[in-house]
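Narrative of activities, Objective 1.

The group set out to show that a structural description can be obtained from nothing but a protein's sequence at a throughput compatible with the screening campaign. Below is one input-output pair from the validation batch, recorded exactly as produced.
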Amino acid sequence: MSYRGKVILCGDPGVGKTSLLSRYVDKKFSDEYHQTIGANFLIKEIDLGKIIDKLELKSEELKADVKDKGFKLYFWDIGGQSDKLFANEYYFIQAVGAMVIFSLNKYSSFQNLDFWISKLEELSGEVPYIIVGNKSDLEREVDPEFINEKLSKLGIDYFETSAKLNQNVNEAFERLSIQILNNLK
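Output recorded for this entry:
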């Protein structure tokens, strides 16, 4: 049986959570916007060949076991309507990692990062997560200086992505996978 775990993607509506996940798992992108109600669910078997040497697992036995058995992540794309979040809070429970996403062309989504991070910590505990600034292909509304300030306070990995152009999408998901695997006991 492979190692497995649940990863959640959270952030405001319209930041591109569904698009990022679709690009990563299915290698597809759609220009049409369909608001996620509740959550979407996709599974991806992680190609460990690309990341196994980057793992900092303390046990070589565990590293060999993970490589032998494989690693599956179950991705939950959480609807971003904070007023309806009470109905979706159970999706956060037992997550092994998360991607907190904002849109580079929507400043309010950046301002709401603290809300999503606090919700993640409250409901999932201390799990590895990364921050993603999506829609790098559009005109930027979030100043890089604000992003750098936030990152220096949090000490979290950050990626700027474009689901549309498939820029840094795989890199962001691979980095999160590495963090999750390195967090294994």
